[in-house]
């Protein structure tokens, strides 16, 4: 690479180990950032920087890896303990202001991008645009707007109305309502259309957990309509049949995909649908649910959801299905900035992935949820300089990514994130 006549200040990270986010073994190299881009890695990096105004940061003893991508957040929820709190005790303007602060907590945890799966009001859209416009600081983000849901099954039982909007959801029943709502959301600028394909029934009638509440034809209608307008579709699926039908209908990503049977696994593999298991919420509820007043019975239900799902998800992964990491940050059990790392630990401890594989799921694979594949999630020339610098080696101790003291530097778009000024 020939020398560059650089008119702008560059940042040189020297002496560190690099984990590229592609699953490759770590290696020692210098790295040069110009504006928002990685422009050089390796032996000739200092030559490329010659004659330029360079700020050098010695990161010896540290690992440089892509900024983490959390592919399942709820940035507008503000950590409620109940759906009542979320649905009836939030105001649009205040929710947006609070979300702008919470987004900075996420960024300071080393998460340089996240997918806001659904939001109250239009807060996700407003926050995304404010971050992109430089009005507030925060990670890169995409948002799913209000989730399409019917009042038969959600996670809020009879708090959901028969029609209209409440909290993070919009109630749709008929094909016309489905199409009209997708049109409305695309007009507003959502990045994804989200569907609550499964939900908890008011009276279980012997069913433990969620039930599928959408038909295959309805799911196909969602995909046909959204895809025709260039917008991908993501589904909340916590049953075998909901995961199977979402994959068959053409969904572009599935959240949870728990309790898959052979048919569901086959459908996911056949259509190569990325999965975001989001085990962190279940794990936190199982471990800490009593601290927020959760029913002891649900603690065991959520613990089993992990243990009874890891084999099928691992089977899909081994067959080439991309896995992404998500924390479901935004609830009292998953406060912003504190648990984004835990999904990687679960991938290592429960799914049996190597730390390098888990990091790949949280970086280059996560670029799918941001719709920025080939631009973020990798430490490579030509990629955006979204970087995390950690003291030590997370390929040997994945828990370092959850240790705030180990996080030495964070860069988003080439700009160093202030980790010192209190929020």
Task: Characterize this entry briefly.
By secondary structure, the chain is of the alpha/beta class. The chain has 14 helices and 22 strands.
Low-confidence stretches: 1-6
Q: State the helical fraction.
A: 25-40%
- The proportion of residues in beta strands is 15-25%
- End-to-end separation in angstroms reads 41 Å
Q: Radius of gyration, Cα only, in angstroms?
A: 21 Å
Give the averaged pLDDT, no decimals: 94
Sheet bearing the most strands, described?
Answer: 6 strands, mixed
Question: Which descriptor suits the 3D outline?
Answer: globular
* Total E-strand runs: 22
Number of helices: 14
Helix/strand/pairing class, anyone?
alpha/beta
- Side-by-side strand order of the widest sheet: 3-2-7-20-21-22
Descriptive overview:
The chain is an alpha/beta fold. 32% of the residues lie in helices and 20% in strands. The strands form six sheets. The protein has a six-stranded mixed sheet, with no helix packed on it. Strands 5-4-1-6 form a four-stranded mixed sheet. The protein has a four-stranded parallel sheet with strand order 14-17-18-19.
Architecture blueprint of SSEs:
Blueprint: E1 10-14, E2 17-18, E3 27-28, E4 31-34, E5 37-41, H1 45-49, E6 54-58, E7 62-66, E8 68-73, H2 83-88, H3 92-108, E9 111-116, H4 123-132, E10 140-143, E11 147-149, E12 164-166, E13 169-171, H5 175-188, E14 193-196, E15 198-199, E16 211-212, H6 216-228, E17 233-237, H7 240-249, E18 253-256, H8 262-271, E19 275-276, H9 279-288, H10 296-307, H11 310-318, H12 342-349, H13 355-362, H14 367-370, E20 387-391, E21 407-412, E22 415-416
Parallel strand pairs: 1-6, 2-7, 8-9, 9-10, 11-13, 14-17, 17-18, 18-19
Antiparallel strand pairs: 1-4, 2-3, 4-5, 7-20, 12-13, 15-16, 20-21, 21-22
Helix pairs in contact: 3-4, 5-6, 6-7, 7-8, 8-11, 9-10, 12-13
């Amino acid at each position: 690479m020939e020398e560059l006549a650089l008119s702008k200040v560059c940042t040189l990270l020297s002496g560190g180990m690099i984990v590229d986010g592609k699953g490759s073994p770590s290696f020692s190299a210098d790295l040069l950032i110009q504006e928002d881009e990685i422009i050089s890695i390796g032996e000739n990096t200092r030559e490329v920087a010659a004659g330029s105004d360079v700020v050098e940061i010695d990161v010896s003893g540290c690992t440089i890896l892509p900024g983490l991508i959390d592919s399942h957040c709820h940035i507008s929820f503000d950590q409620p303990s109940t759906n009542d709190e979320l649905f009836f005790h939030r105001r649009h303007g205040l929710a947006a202001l609070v979300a702008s602060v919470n987004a900075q907590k996420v960024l300071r945890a080393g998460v340089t991008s996240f997918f806001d799966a659904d939001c109250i009001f239009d807060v996700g859209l407003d926050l995304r645009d404010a971050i992109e416009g430089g009005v507030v600081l925060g990670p890169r983000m995409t948002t799913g707007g209000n989730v399409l849901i019917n009042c038969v099954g959600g996670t809020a039982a009879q708090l959901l109305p028969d029609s209209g909007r409440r909290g993070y959801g919009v109630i749709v029943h008929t094909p016309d309502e489905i199409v009209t709502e997708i049109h409305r959301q695309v007009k507003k600028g959502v990045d994804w259309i989200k569907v609550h394909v499964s939900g908890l029934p008011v009276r279980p009638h012997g069913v433990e957990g969620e039930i599928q509440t959408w038909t295959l034809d309805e799911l196909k209608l969602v995909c046909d309509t959204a895809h025709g307008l260039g917008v991908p579709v993501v589904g909340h699926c916590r049953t075998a049949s909901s995961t199977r039908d979402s994959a068959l209908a053409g969904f572009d990503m599935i959240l949870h995909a728990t309790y898959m049977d052979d048919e569901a696994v086959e459908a996911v593999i056949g259509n190569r649908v990325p999965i975001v298991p989001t085990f962190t919420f279940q794990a936190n509820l199982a471990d800490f649910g009593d601290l927020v007043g959760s029913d002891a019975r649900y603690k065991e239900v959520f613990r089993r959801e992990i243990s009874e799902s890891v084999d099928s998800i691992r089977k899909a992964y081994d067959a080439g299905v991309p896995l992404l990491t998500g924390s479901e940050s935004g609830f009292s059990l998953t406060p912003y900035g504190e648990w984004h790392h835990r999904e990687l630990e679960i991938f290592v401890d429960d799914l049996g992935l190597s730390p390098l594989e888990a990091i790949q799921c949280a970086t280059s694979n996560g670029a799918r949820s941001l719709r920025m594949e080939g631009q973020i999630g990798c430490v490579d020339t030509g990629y955006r300089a979204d970087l995390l610098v950690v003291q030590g080696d997370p390929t040997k101790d994945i828990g370092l990514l959850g240790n705030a003291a180990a996080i030495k530097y964070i860069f988003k778009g080439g700009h160093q994130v202030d980790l010192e000024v209190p929020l």
